[in-house]
Amino acid sequence: MAQFAYKAKDPSGKVVEGNVEAPDEKAAMARLRGQRLSVTEIKAGASVKAGKKGGKIDNKDVVIFSRQLSTLVSSGVPIVQGLTILSEQAEAPNFRLVLNTLKSDIEAGLSIADGMKKHPNAFTELYVAMIRAGEVGGILDTILERLSAYLEANEALKGKVKSALMYPTVVFSAAGLITIFLIVFVIPIFKDIFAGFGAELPFITQMLINISDFMRHYILYLIPPLGLAGWLFKKWMKTPKGERKVDEISLKLPVFGILLKKVAVAKFSRTLGTLIKSGVPILQGLETVAQTAGNRIIEEAINNSQKSIKEGGRISDPLKKSGIFPPMVIQMISVGEETGSLDNMLTKIADFYDTEVDTAVKGLTSMLEPIIMIVLGVVIGTIVIAMFMPMFGLGEMVG
Question: Is the pTM of the predicted complex or chain greater than 0.70?
């Protein structure tokens, strides 16, 4: 099979780019026409944009698709017909293209899992592993139901964490912009007024004026090195060493670290429990969970568990050594291993920690509100007092 890069217009008239596999260019054109695309350009080879990642796919589109496909398959609708229905309903052009390509691949004899594996931008390793287990076991409808429930729970978990971080981020950003405005534009006005006093200014007032002068005269010179430093830090974060260090520090943060640990435990338990319950072998399940952990420290702990099982050990011992998983979780996993009900234990842990995350988010929000008010009061109050202190001194001199 050769690969062809193409540009085409979808039924809505939007230009899309991608790759298609076919024996020759004529077959590639026929396949694209079958996806209701009007080809404007096609050539042999891979396109620049449609590489490994392809076009961006929103997680919410995948969640909705999973639930809808689960309902269709459970109702007895054939998978190809179900994909046809869902591709026509899909609003996002990139995701519609993925579904059309997937449908064509299945019609050409490819398995559902192998077809999905070609689209890592839409379907994760976990998704593909569960679909493969459903195909092998002949329980695709059950797997899709579990997968839908898992994805919905995972999205809900992400939403809770984002909501907890959104409020302080917005408030502190607004406060920072207001503070910069006061220092750069307001304080110079007071400086001109104070210059006519002919008296020595209080230390705090003089300090703010010095900061204002520095920012107004040198801020443009600081932007390039700060931008370069930010770019270099971002590049360093993408290296294995940098990513591991950032993940390690994030888990040790005073308040957010505890929340991140609870989220990690809930995600690990939910993912591994769903995989085992779906018939995925434990070693493959651990490998998939490690890849989707999202944290290098947790990934290492899971990989160590995988090695422990290969050597005849247990999952719980390496998890205990990592220091991330609480004693209660370790005990429940250990009991699950001994009784042969690890999937049920993991599901119970996930349900418990979902509740814990809810409680932690509410507690964090209620705690952050007074802290934010205090910080804002101190910053703005300091600026106001610093600007009015010389006026109080002038009043005393006049008196």
Answer: no
Please report, as a single letter, which amino acid is at residue 285: G
Domain ranges of the chain: 2-44, 59-152, 153-399
pLDDT of 125-160, one tens digit each?
888 888 888 887 778 888 888 888 888 877 887 787
**Residue pair 4/42 in contact by the 8 Å Cβ criterion:** yes
The string of DSSP letters for 166-219 reads: HHHHHHHHHHHHHHHHIIIIIHHHHHHHHHTT-SPPPHHHHHHHHHHHHHHHHH
Same fold, 59-152 and 153-399: yes
Among 6, 119, 204, smallest CA distance to 131 is for 119
Q: Structurally, what CATH architecture does the domain formed by 59-152 represent?
A: Up-down Bundle (1.20)
CB distance 45 to 3 below 8 Å: yes
- What is the CATH number that goes with domain 153-399? 1.20.81.30
- What six digits make up the tokens of 364? 């964090």
Q: Are 260 and 362 in contact (CB under 8 A)?
A: no
Task: Please state, in angstroms and rounded to a whole number, the distance separating the CA atoms of residues 271 and 72.
Answer: 24
Rounded to the nearest 5 percent, the helix, strand and coil shares of the chain are 75, 5, 20
Element (H, E) at 247: helix 240-251
Q: How many CA atoms lie within 13 A of 211 on its CB side?
A: 15
**C-alpha separations of 52 from 56, 118, 202, 209 in Å:** 11, 9, 61, 53
Q: 306, 319 in Cβ contact below 8 A?
A: no
| Contact by Cβ (8 Å): 390, 205 | yes
Q: Which region among 98-102, 140-144, 259-263, 387-391 has the lowest average model confidence (pLDDT)?
A: 387-391
Q: What are phi and psi of 200, to 5 degrees?
A: -70, 135
